[in-house]
Write a structure and sequence with these properties.
Rossmann fold; alpha/beta; eight-stranded mixed beta sheet; single chain; globular; 9 helices
Length: about 300
């Protein structure tokens, strides 16, 4: 099985770095899976490569990528661009996902014509799941967001361990952000002090409904698989219930004992069997992909 690296232009002309997992050569690809990482995540984090690997084994071309303002490059030990991290917003991530979806649809990512016009499934973990919902809502209701431009419609979306609010900080944090232009947000992984910037907050407050994940879920007309773990101490299961309850074609799948990262170390060792909870997540993603491409 082959993995190919690539880069395209994303929001504000910043680079989106990606890696593509291709199905075995004897397998005809059946669809494309786009994989969005979460807050302070990146395309190589935790179970993300595992989801891509096992999806490819099932016959899906799996693209995992760094959002252009994630702050991450191919140096995995550090946020090499903390300046970009501070500028990140939901709008910038939506532009990035649209760019990747269009590039995959047009056959401009690795696998070229093999991925052209294949049905797409969009998966997002945590904050990435919110981005998937916001972007999918815009894809299905383009007249509401004419400035974004056209993009392919996903045949299925998978918000995983995703919050039901775009603003997840305390209300008191707003005062800090407005006063100094940012709020500190330490990375336990790299020990860097990152910043969440004012543009993120101003964008949400300018149009709260446009960046509300629950409202977005209600506008997504394709099948949706909402996945969450009972042991998620970062995002409560009630978020999954609210998202699934709003979506017209959603299935809620709760994985017993699963943490926010599905009991998976960073990095995940592909030569080893995933955790019980990680395997359950991978199986649900693969089953959903099989289901929606067969519709």
């Amino acid at each position: 099985m082959h993995t190919l690296d690539w880069s395209i232009s994303g929001s504000d002309g910043e680079v989106i770095l990606g890696s593509t997992h291709l199905p075995p050569v004897q397998v005809q690809p059946r669809g494309v899976l786009l994989i969005c990482h979460g807050f302070k995540g990146y395309k190589d984090y935790g179970i993300v490569p595992g989801i891509a690997h096992y999806a490819a084994m099932q016959g899906f071309i799996a693209h995992r990528f760094n959002f252009s303002h994630s702050g991450m490059t191919n140096r995995l030990d550090t946020f090499e661009r903390p300046d970009l991290f501070e500028k990140d917003t939901w709008g910038r991530q939506i532009v990035d996902l649209r760019a990747v979806a269009n590039a995959a649809h047009e056959g401009e990512l690795p696998a070229f014509t093999k991925s052209k016009n294949l049905p797409q499934i969009w998966y997002g973990h945590s904050r990435g799941g919110v981005t998937v919902l916001l972007t999918a809502a815009r894809a299905f209701m383009p007249t509401r967001y004419p400035k974004l431009g056209a993009m392919p419609l996903p045949v299925g979306v998978i918000p995983c361990a995703s919050p039901h609010r775009a603003f997840w900080l305390h209300e008191s944090d707003k005062e800090t952000i407005y006063a100094q232009g940012y709020i500190d947000s330490p990375s336990q992984r790299t020990k860097q002090m990152l910043r969440i910037g004012l543009p993120w907050l101003k964008e949400i407050e300018h149009d709260p409904d446009a960046f509300d994940p629950v409202i977005a879920a209600s506008r997504v007309s394709c099948p949706m698989e909402v996945i969450h773990g009972t042991a998620d101490m970062t995002v409560g299961v009630d978020s999954a219930e609210k998202i699934a309850g709003a979506a017209p074609r959603a299935t809620l799948h709760i994985i017993e004992g699963a943490t926010h990262v599905f009991n998976t170390s960073n990095p995940m060792r592909l030569e080893r069997e995933p955790s019980v909870q990680g395997r359950a997540l991978i199986n649900r993603v693969n089953a959903f992909c099989d289901q929606v491409v067969a519709l």
